[in-house]
Amino acid sequence: MAHIKVVRRSMRPEEWTDLRFGWLKRYIYEEKYEIENLKVRDARQTSEMQYEYYPEGWRELRRGDMYFTPDGTAFFDAEVKIPRHLKDKELWLSLKTAAEIIVKVNGRYVGGVDPNRDRILLTPYIDSDVLHFEMEGYNRSKPDDERNPESLSVRGCRQIFEGAYLATVNHTVLDLVYDLELLLDIAKSELFNEDYRSFLNREINNALNLIDFDELKNEDVAKAKKYVDDVIYANDDYKGNGDVALIAHSHLDIAYYWRRIHSVQKNLRTVLIQLRLMDRYPDFKYTHTQAYTYEMLEKYYPDVFEELKEKVAKGQFEPVGAMYVEPDCNIPAAESLIRQFMYGQHYFREKFGMTVKNCWLPDVFGNSWILPQILKKSGVDYFVSNKMSTWNDTNRFPHNNFIWKGIDGSEVYACVPPTHFITWNMPSQIQENWEAYQDKNQGGQTMSMFGYGDGGSGCTEEMIEVMHRFNKLSVMPKTEHIGGQEFLEKNLKDNKNLAKWDGDLYLEMHRGTFTTKSRMKRYNRQLEYKLREAEIISTLRHLKGEEYPAGEIRELYKRLLINQFHDILPGSHITPVYRDAMADYEEIDQKLDRIIGTGSRYFNSLNFTRKHLAFIPDEKGDSTRYGKKGNWLIPYLPALSSGEIKKEEYKDEWITVGEKVITPFYEIGFNPDGSINSLYDRELDREWVKGEFNKLKLYKDNPGVYDAWDILPNYTDREIEFKVVSPLEVIEKNSEAVSFACTLATDKSEWKRIIRVFRQSRGIEVENVVDWNERHVLAKAQFDCNVLTRKAVCDTSAGFTERETHRNTTWQQARFEVCHHKWVDMAETDGGIALINDSKYGVGLLENSMSLSLLRATVRPDVNGDRGHHEFSYMIYPHGDDFIKAEINNIAYEYNIPLCKADVSGESIFGDLYMQTMKMSEKGDTVVVRLSEQNGKRGRIKLGKKVKLLNFLEDTVGEVDVIEYKPFEIITIGMESTAVVK
Amino acid sequence: MKDYIEKVIKPKLQGDGGEIDFLSHEDGILTVLLQGECSKCLIVERCIAWIEGEILRDKGERVRIIAQKKKPFFWDKD
Questions:
Q1: What distances in angstroms separate CA A89 from CA A35, A110, A169, A465, one per listed residue?
Q2: Which DSSP helix (H) or strand (E) runs through A553?
Q3: B16/A259 CB distance under 8 A
Q4: Which residues of A fall within a CB distance of 8 Å from B43?
Q5: How would you class A22 by CB atoms within 10 Å of its CB: exposed for 0-12, middle for 13-18, buried for 19 or more?
């Protein structure tokens, strides 16, 4: 007998409930009075507060009309006389929209509407019979929260206007709607007790049966509400467990699918909405990050900023995060991260009289091991970041509330909340958070963030209303709505039971962000060092009586920091964001050039003698690098000194080019594509190559939806062949360097490799000049080294980290692509190979192989990601001994910091510590020097004079004449300046 | 027309994560390629109509736009 599946087509009881619930929501508004004289004017934002207007000017906007344009801002205006029957009633503006609209009434900012909320309470702002509405809306094809299905359903650049209304709300209906929102979420969630859900389904039905939906009456709704109170809320037979802290937050990407200029209004709307919720709900507390967003609000919307300050004073609006923006925490160098805190904390101190005690980075793509020390010395004891718990693709990060131990041994309290930073505070999400929480027995409460985000927006009335009902439900975990810092201190501070994580907080996802948007990463690296150069030179000049350009340097630094935001520098953004960043970089670059100026002598800003080969631009030079003439020479400039440098005269033949290329250091077997089949070290009497070496490899790179973000472990599955267009040949030869060049090509791209060997350096430089027009291709340079090792060493910018190169467990398997800074080294005890780069961060490490990630070609979010011209270099540096004795770190600094001309000099008394910066203090009265131990050593430096010991905020924390340092410590000292700051 | 699409329309669509490229313009038919967010937009016809209106206003030319969508394969599940 054939099996006939019974398909139920009649309505199930749950569907009947849903249907009536939807019906009930139609009665939320008691009365609606359409605003019929609304006018609209289309524009496009061109800067933070400037707009280009469409020529049509103001036009009438009627229900059913099309409104908004691609990347468009629309301005709305209407003057409405309140009709007599609505006077003295609680009055709302009702406006359902897919856009983000900021609403002003009679000159005052009253709130915002967007896909997550469609009404604003007007009553507190009504001071006359006439309401003058001025509204500004930014359209978005990409909703700021794709997790809200309602947002998703209405996205698109051209929208249909659904009308704007003065309205009154039926609170009896609305109360029941919130009850049902809450109860139905539980009834539909498999995370809750099945019997309780049956009970809910039955009793919700019973409650709704008290309402005649053909003729809805308030008294019936009230009866249903009473039934919910008496039967459902009163039931405590079903016990939940857990203890969840509910923290209100809105994640605001200052650039992503929108430009930075739009975040000014996104932030205003977000802040306004939260302030209005605070007005109505005195128990509501909200956390907001990024000093930059406060700065923008203060600058452009001072009235709202004053309100915000009042709410901060009341403890409702809580500045969190301490940093200037929420930066990427893989790529920026230590000094940049320090400045994020310094500028952030100085702002919070100045405006709110507070030092923020937590670092709040819900969305960043992993966190460098150097962070705990930077936090501690920036007045921050706590760290919050969500991604590792919810986004790891291989291993479950084992802790939520724990202690994070940094590279130098500094410890901070850390919270990696078990669930996403965007939730809408529904019981199922809270239950999920509790179930995912791994420190139930020792960590105290678990943190559940609520509020829409990515483009801001934040919490809603609904989230707060349901929250006020949680304690009526015995089946739910215990909940408490508290502030961010309050949570951290309550649960983590002095908690002796917390587990400890000693290492970086590597995110097992988004590994492509070490490489995507290569040009930005190169510019960022160059400007980090150029800022260092500008500060040191300006300080030394200031000590001779010149004016220190404090304000200008601060502004340029801040601009760089903004562009280190975690969807800017990592490359996960649309085309205009890239253009903005590149324009910023160019401006910073030019202004720094002006600050640095020039001189008659070359200045060595490093606090060690420059004794490695450098390229000095000179139109009359006999070498070429990146198309510019110059000379390769060894500067021999002592630390912080300036002087003349001369090219050494050398006439003897030093290189043989035949089947093998023989230099003073090597016998090299080159292949036509520039790869090396043999690298015999004449000094060390050993072969360095075992397999493919300096081999340029192209792979199909299809990571899926997270295109700009991810490289997947299967990227090696499909390799693309390069054709050798012109094989390797000598193109330039002189007394210091010989350059070989070859050109490789695909159907779309051309890649010129210029390989240099040197008379006086063990380095072999590979300059890359690329016209890159691929889609979904990852380019790597592969180095199979004749080295037996189980670990590689990676520069972090403030010390090194060792990374395992085997794949024994899933933890190593997940780290198939890792972040490094200027160099990576793979060695045996008596020698190894370092790869020193001028702009690369991603590297794959497997057994004896290193694969340096060079370029990607992604299509989302930026359809044109990384296409175009690229120039970058790396240097292969085989060495004897270990990387410390071989001075790889110093060589990498010399490689990355070009000599500039400036007639200044200073005194170096800091031994082996790397001088990370020298600047005038923010107050202008002290010379601040930051020193970084980078070789994992302990020691002592006798200064011979008393200096102030400072933290990273430039507060004095002690006085010393001997600096005692431990491995990887970063120390800041302040020395009196006799010069007067003008 | 190519210049207009590239210089006037394209930056606006890019501001929303979209992309438009000129393909051809013959006999009043303007063919364009849509990528990025535009390639998966469910209401892109409204935008196409708007572009036709912009061209009419700015260039005084009435065109009918044929939009080819090039959606990355990983979005096909959407």
A1: 17, 17, 10, 22
A2: helix A550-562
A3: no
A4: 156, 158
A5: exposed
Please give the average per-residue pLDDT across A616-638, as a whole number.
96
Report the SS3 class of residue A42. Answer: strand
Structure tokens at A966: 């431990």
Which tens digits make up the pLDDT trace of A250-304?
999 999 999 999 999 999 999 999 999 999 999 999 999 999 999 999 999 999 9
Q: By residue range, what is the domain housing residue B25? A: 2-72
* Cα dihedral across residues A780, A721, A710, A414: positive or negative: negative
Q: In angstroms, rounded to a whole number, what is the distance separating the alpha carbons of residues A246 and A254?
A: 24
H/E element, A342: helix A334-352
Backbone angles phi and psi of A641, in degrees to 5 = -115, 165
Tell me if A698 is assigned to some domain: yes
What's the burial of A578, exposed, middle or buried (CB within 10 Å: 0-12/13-18/19+)? buried
What CATH number does residue B63 fall under? 3.30.300.130
A860 contact residues in B (CB cutoff 8 A)? 36, 72
Domain that holds residue A952: 907-982
Question: Are A411 and A455 contained in the same domain?
Answer: yes
Place of tokens 């490093």: A606
- pLDDT for A976 equals 80
Same domain, A499 and A416: yes
Contact B50 A702 (CB under 8 A): no
Gap between the Cα atoms of A896 and A885, Å rounded? 20
Do A80 and A98 lie in one domain? The reply is yes
Residue A41 lies in a domain: yes
For residue A257, which residues of chain B lie inside 8 Å, CB to CB?
16-17, 37
Give Cβ neighbours of residue A696 (< 8 Å, ≥ 6 apart): A673, A674, A675, A722, A744, A751, A753, A779, A780, A781, A782, A854
The whole-angstrom separation of Cα A766 and Cα A644 is 28
Domain stop point among A114, A136, A169: A169
Nearest residue of chain A to residue B41 (CA atoms)? A156
Residue A582 lies in a domain: no
Q: Are A257 and B50 an interchain contact pair (Cβ–Cβ within 8 Å)? A: no
Q: Is pLDDT larger for residue A98 or for residue A973?
A: A973
* Report field, pTM of the whole predicted structure over 0.80: yes
Please state the domain count of chain B: 1
Q: What is the rounded CA–CA span in Å between residue A268 and residue A588?
A: 27
How far apart are the C-alpha atoms of A626 and A632, rounded to whole Å?
A: 13
Q: A699 with A691: CB under 8 angstroms? A: no
Please tell me whether residues A979 and A889 are part of one structural domain.
Answer: no
The burial of A688, by beta-carbon neighbours within 10 Å (0-12 exposed, 13-18 middle, 19 or more buried), is given as buried
* Residue A853 bridge partners (DSSP): A780
Contacts (Cβ under 8 Å, ≥6 apart) of A746: A698, A720, A721, A722, A723, A774
d(CA A574, CA A577): 6
The mean pLDDT value of chain A amounts to 96
By Cβ distance, the residue of B15, B41, B49 closest to A156 is: B41
| Same domain assignment for residues A284 and A228 | no
Q: Helices marked H in A103-241 — which ranges?
A: 149-153, 171-187, 194-208, 218-227
Radius of gyration of chain B (CA): 12
Mutate to test the interface with A, among B32, B43, B57, B75 (most CBs of A within 10 A): B43
CA distance A141 to chain B (A): 6
Statement to judge: residues A836 and A884 lie in one domain: yes
State how far the Cα of A213 lies from the Cα of A220, in Å rounded to an integer. 10
Complex prediction ipTM: 0.96
pLDDT at A150: 62
Least Cα separation, residue B31 to chain A (angstroms): 19
Contact B50 A158 (CB under 8 A): yes
Task: Give a yes or no: residue A551 inside a domain.
Answer: no
